[in-house]
């Protein structure tokens, strides 16, 4: 390769006093720089990473890739800074350093590429992301070298500037791919604040999932893999040639064959690995927190039941309860502006009612505009007339307790108007069937308490039609335990 | 000028007429030194600066909301107990805490340890004793298997001994935490830790924090009521329901279990309610003047307490009067009106819960089963304690459940630490009665209702029931979890005192235990 050497002297600024003796042995240096680039290009083309793990010593060397890779990046990004700053008369001397910095960057980039290849080739990496990142690095080494070669020809060269800009773009792109490899494909948007997410139109990646949620696999198994495994065994990075991002890929297995033997929990390698102690060589997920006991149990039961992707979501009776227990509780955040906006419509009425009836009406929490009404505190002093005054906020009340108050069936309509009610308590009131028969509108009701009232089994068909009801307290009423009830109320009556 | 103004104000306050005080004014002015001036100038400028700073910072901090904003617990001084919404939607609206003072033995009640039974009577291995401190055990004690047989029960198949046949029937509503841990091995500090989050005196109790944070809906009753049984006040004393550094209006009100619940609540003969009212109005007026003069918030507390007592004349007697319950209810609880018993207290607890009392604390004394005498022997006195609490506790749970109150009432049952798997050998001697020493390393408490996952068991101890091997829960974790159920981030329920945002869970990091949430 013919690298022009003398032009360097002409390009340097005469204002500098140091006599410039040029770069020693530039031809030789050119070859020194080209040899590793050539080597890594050949290696990457002929021996691409294929998801198989190889010798440990190669991996040992390869692990230095992230450590080394940032040096050439910094050096290369320094070049445009030097060039731009060097345009100013005061900093012209900066441009003198450019060839030196570029040659360092080239050597660094090629070393980093070789280390990267070693890691990928021996560490069991493969996948599109991997390949893109690798070639990004290799091309970048070439670009570095090209810059170095193009630079000395002319003071300002379109070709040089173009290659330099291209190089900067390539650094960003390759770096982004590298980030995706180590932190996951959506690492930049994963923890993006919701506001910004909405602004940029980025979808919440946590919701992505293609498996049928009505199957046990889709509802229970795939979410575990998606949360804990697919960073390394996903579409973009399949270590050990194993992918866990779809049922087909899972059943295909990895480099050592299938990881799941249907119905056989002893022979299923996946299960064996996730159950190992975390310091064992074969333990998965390697270097991460072990799967929760419930998650392991769920996978085990699913494999034992045949590991089918069509098995219904509720087919396994003794599976650990639906939603896996989160490791930490998340506390809701209060958005005062949002709360103020939600409350603006009813705020004045609520304040006025709070003054009129101290202590019995309040917001459900500091974060909501939903109301709780506890008239039981006032006992018999609270009657139908009082309940009428709550009509303006009726649709905001989610919990109402009229226990031991003197309200009568005249209040039936007022209660039925509280359409958002989730909990309603009528303990020891004079209400009768006539009131409860009007509750058809309360389709959010989860808990209805008529303990100690004179209601009879005649209300049961109406109550049975409430879609969300899960508890109906009917102790000390005309409804007696042991009598037959409509099918949808079975197990919901409490005596 | 300002000095003479201040002077005349002072004199007016002292009741000296302004015409006759020219000389006094002069004397006052002469008494003012340069130091007074400098101090007031310095302080004044500082105050001005702080004032502008605060006006700039405080609203913006409040507007920012979310993580950094402190929650506002300020209320009208006249209604310090008025209800406030929780930080976020809460599963539990009130708490009934059944504290078994003296620390019941988990190994005789909830912890089934067949291995320990196998080693019964053998010398305790040295590894159990190395580096450990005991209240009484000395030398090499013998291992002691459970004194009572265990069996599995309920749909949830939990292990329980034969000592609690009634509670056993509620086991599917109960969530056991078998991996509780404390760092105190003496009763008083351990009880203080459980009830105030700190083993030393002077901290606010759990109930006080809850009433401070949520207030109480029923303004005719205290928000935090304490009932005692078992014959003695717990070792931690009245500090256990103290409000510590919180305003004293939030402290627990101890009601008597025998006779009148609150003494002197009834008007004396010939004192009518209206006479009492006008008397209180006059006292309030005087207290108002005192408050205006000194600005001590405790004066407002006093006014509020007088007013509460006046309202309680109507409601407290009714709430505490268990004679109004039917015979079948008394049969269920095993309660007998007029007696001082845990059963009566449980029934009162349900009546108070119905009436919107926020925090109901029961203490039952006598669980300290060392085996030093018959009353505290595992084979004698312990049985009596079990009998005293078993039926009423179960009755309370099932009564709350059938009335729908268990949905939003959090019930807690437990002591202040556990007991050793070794038999106590006070002074290195085999004792006449069977007992166990204190074990802060592992104990069991249980919770029910109020958003707790029912029919489960959290955490595990080793085969001897000596140390925790899985999911340890510190007292502060329990507190954080309970506050979470009540709708609070435990870090946000705080009160500024001694330069620190004081909180129930104190300064060590506490964790909400998600596994036990429904």
Strand content of chain A: under 5%
What strand order characterises the main sheet of chain A? 1-2-3-4-5-6-7
Biggest pleated-sheet summary of chain A: 7 strands, mixed
* Helix amount of chain B: 25-40%
Helix content of chain A: 40-55%
General shape of chain B:
globular
| Total helical elements of chain B | 13
- Gyration radius of chain B, in Å: 27 Å
Integer average pLDDT of chain A: 84
Q: Termini separation of chain B (Å)?
A: 68 Å
DSSP strand tally of chain A: 7
User: Gap between N and C termini of chain A, in Å?
Assistant: 93 Å
Q: List low-confidence stretches of chain B.
A: 13-19, 56-68
Order of helices and strands of chain B: HHHEHHEEEHHEEHHHHEHEEEEEEEEHEE
Strand content of chain B: 15-25%
Please state the structural category of chain B: alpha/beta
SS content category of chain A: mainly alpha
Secondary-structure element pattern of chain A, one letter each: HHHHHHHHHHHHHHEEHEHEHEHEE
As a whole number of angstroms, the C-alpha radius of gyration of chain A is 35 Å
Features:
heterodimer, A: 495 residues, mainly alpha, 43% helix, disordered N terminus, B: 518 residues, alpha/beta, two-stranded antiparallel sheet, 13 helices, globular
In words, what does this structure look like?
With 495 residues, chain A is mainly alpha-helical. Helix content of chain A is 43%, strand content 5%. Chain A is built from 18 helices and seven strands. Chain A has a seven-stranded mixed β-sheet with strand order 1-2-3-4-5-6-7. In chain A, helix 5 (98-122) packs antiparallel against helix 6 and helix 9 (216-228) packs across helix 12 (293-304). Chain A is elongated and about 105 Å long. The termini of chain A are far apart. Mean pLDDT of chain A is 84; it is low at 1-24 and 205-209. By secondary structure, chain B is an alpha/beta fold. Chain B has 13 helices and 17 strands. In chain B, strands 1, 4, 5, 6, 7, 8, 11, 12 and 15 form a nine-stranded mixed β-sheet that branches. Chain B has a two-stranded antiparallel sheet with strand order 2-3. Chain B is globular. The model of chain B is unreliable at 13-19 and 56-68 (pLDDT under 50). The chains are: A mainly alpha (495), B alpha/beta (518). Chain A binds chain B through residues 325-329, 331-337, 358-360, 362-368, 374, 376-377, 403-404, 423, 425, 427, 447, 449, 451, 471, 473, 475, 494-495, and chain B through 62-63, 65-67, 69, 71, 79, 82-90, 216-219, 354-356, 401-404, 407, 484, 487, 489, 511-512, 514-515, 517.
């Amino acid at each position: 390769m013919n690298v022009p050497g003398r032009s360097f002297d002409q390009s340097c600024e005469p204002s500098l006093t140091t006599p410039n003796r040029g770069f020693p042995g530039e031809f030789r240096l050119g070859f020194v720089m080209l040899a590793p680039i050539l080597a890594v290009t050949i290696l990457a083309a002929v021996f691409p990473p294929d998801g198989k793990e190889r010798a440990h010593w190669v991996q040992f060397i390869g692990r230095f890739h992230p450590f080394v890779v940032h040096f050439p990046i910094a050096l290369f990004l320094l070049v445009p800074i030097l060039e731009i700053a060097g345009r100013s008369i005061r900093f012209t001397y900066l441009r003198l350093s450019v060839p030196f910095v570029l040659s360092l960057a080239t050597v660094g980039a090629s070393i980093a590429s070789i280390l990267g290849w070693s890691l990928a080739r021996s560490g069991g990496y493969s996948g599109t992301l991997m390949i893109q990142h690798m070639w990004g690095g290799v091309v970048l080494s070439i670009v570095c070298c090209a810059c170095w070669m193009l630079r000395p020809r002319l003071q300002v060269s379109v070709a040089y500037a173009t290659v330099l800009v291209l190089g900067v773009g390539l650094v960003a792109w390759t770096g982004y791919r590298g980030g995706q490899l180590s932190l996951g494909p959506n690492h930049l948007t994963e923890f993006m604040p919701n506001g910004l997410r909405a602004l940029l139109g980025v979808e919440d990646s946590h919701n992505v999932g293609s498996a049928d949620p009505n199957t046990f696999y889709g509802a229970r198994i795939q979410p575990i893999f998606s949360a804990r495994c697919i960073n390394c065994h996903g579409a973009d990075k399949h270590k050990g040639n194993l992918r866990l991002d779809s049922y087909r890929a899972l059943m295909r297995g990895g480099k050592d064959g299938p990881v799941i033997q249907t119905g056989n929990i002893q022979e299923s390698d996946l299960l064996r690995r996730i159950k190992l102690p975390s310091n064992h060589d074969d333990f998965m997920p390697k270097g991460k927190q072990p799967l929760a006991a419930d998650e392991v149990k769920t996978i085990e039961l699913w494999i034992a039941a045949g590991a089918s992707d069509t098995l219904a979501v509720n087919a396994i009776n003794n599976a650990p309860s639906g939603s896996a227990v989160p490791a930490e509780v998340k506390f809701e955040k209060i958005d005062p502006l949002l709360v103020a906006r939600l409350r603006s419509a009813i705020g004045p009425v609520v304040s006025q009612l709070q003054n009129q009836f101290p202590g019995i009406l309040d917001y459900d929490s500091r974060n909501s505009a939903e109301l709780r009404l506890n008239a039981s505190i006032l006992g018999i002093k609270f009657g139908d007339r009082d309940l009428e005054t709550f009509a303006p906020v009726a649709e905001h009340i989610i919990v109402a307790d009229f226990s031991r108050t003197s309200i009568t069936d005249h209040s039936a309509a007022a209660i039925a108007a509280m359409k958002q009610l989730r909990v309603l308590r009528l303990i020891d009131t004079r209400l009768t069937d006539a009131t409860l028969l009007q509750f058809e509108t309360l389709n959010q009701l989860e808990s209805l308490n008529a303990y100690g009232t004179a209601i009879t089994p005649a209300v049961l068909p109406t109550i049975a039609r409430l879609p969300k009801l899960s508890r109906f307290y009917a102790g000390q009423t005309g409804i007696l335990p042991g009598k037959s009830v409509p099918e949808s109320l079975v197990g919901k009556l409490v005596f | 000028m300002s000095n003479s103004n201040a002077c005349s104000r002072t004199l007016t306050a002292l009741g000296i007429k302004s015409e006759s005080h020219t000389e006094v004014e002069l004397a006052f002015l002469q008494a003012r030194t340069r130091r007074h001036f400098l101090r007031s100038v310095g302080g004044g400028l500082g105050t001005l600066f702080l004032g502008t700073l605060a006006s700039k910072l405080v609203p913006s901090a409040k507007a920012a909301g979310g993580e950094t904003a402190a929650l506002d617990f300020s209320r009208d001084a006249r209604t310090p107990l008025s209800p406030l919404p929780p930080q976020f939607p809460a599963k539990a609206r009130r708490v009934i805490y059944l504290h078994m003072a003296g620390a019941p033995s988990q190994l005789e009640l909830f912890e089934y340890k067949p291995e320990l039974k196998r080693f019964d009577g053998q010398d305790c291995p040295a590894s159990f004793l190395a580096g450990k401190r005991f209240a009484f055990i000395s030398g090499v004690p013998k291992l002691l298997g459970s004194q009572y047989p265990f069996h599995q029960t309920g749909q949830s198949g939990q292990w329980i001994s034969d000592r609690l046949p009634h509670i056993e029937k509620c086991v599917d509503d109960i969530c056991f935490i078998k991996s509780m841990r404390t760092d105190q091995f003496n009763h008083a500090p351990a009880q203080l830790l459980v009830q105030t989050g700190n083993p030393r005196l002077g901290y606010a109790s759990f109930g006080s924090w809850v009433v401070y944070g949520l207030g109480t809906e029923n303004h005719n009753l205290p928000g935090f009521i304490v009932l005692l049984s078992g014959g003695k006040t717990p070792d931690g004393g009245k500090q256990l329901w103290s409000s510590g550094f919180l305003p004293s209006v939030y402290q627990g009100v101890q009601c008597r279990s025998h006779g009148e619940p609150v003494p002197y609540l009834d008007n004396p003969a010939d004192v009518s309610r209206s006479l009492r009212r006008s008397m209180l109005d006059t006292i309030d007026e005087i207290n108002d003047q005192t408050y205006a003069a000194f600005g001590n918030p405790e004066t407002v507390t006093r006014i509020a307490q007088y007013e509460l007592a006046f309202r309680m004349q109507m409601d407290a007697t009714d709430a505490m009067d268990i004679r109004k319950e039917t015979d079948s209810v008394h049969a269920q609880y095993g309660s007998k009106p007029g007696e001082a018993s845990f059963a009566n207290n449980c029934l009162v607890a349900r009546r108070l819960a119905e009436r919107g009392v926020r925090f109901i604390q029961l203490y039952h004394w006598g669980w300290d089963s060392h085996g030093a005498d018959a009353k505290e022997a595992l084979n004698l006195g312990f049985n009596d304690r079990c009998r005293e609490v078993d039926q009423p506790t179960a009755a309370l749970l099932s009564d709350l459940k059938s009335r729908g109150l268990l949905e939003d009432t959090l019930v807690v049952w437990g002591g202040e630490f556990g007991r050793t798997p070794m038999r106590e050998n006070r002074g290195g001697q085999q004792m006449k009665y069977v007992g166990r020493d204190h074990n802060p390393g592992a104990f069991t408490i249980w919770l029910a209702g109020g958003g707790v996952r029912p029919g489960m068991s959290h955490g595990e101890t080793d085969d001897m029931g000596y140390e925790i091997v899985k999911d340890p829960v510190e007292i502060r974790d329990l507190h954080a979890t309970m506050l979470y159920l009540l709708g609070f981030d435990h870090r946000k329920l705080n009160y500024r005192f001694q330069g620190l945002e004081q909180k129930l869970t104190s300064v060590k990091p506490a964790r909400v235990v998600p596994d036990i949430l429904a």
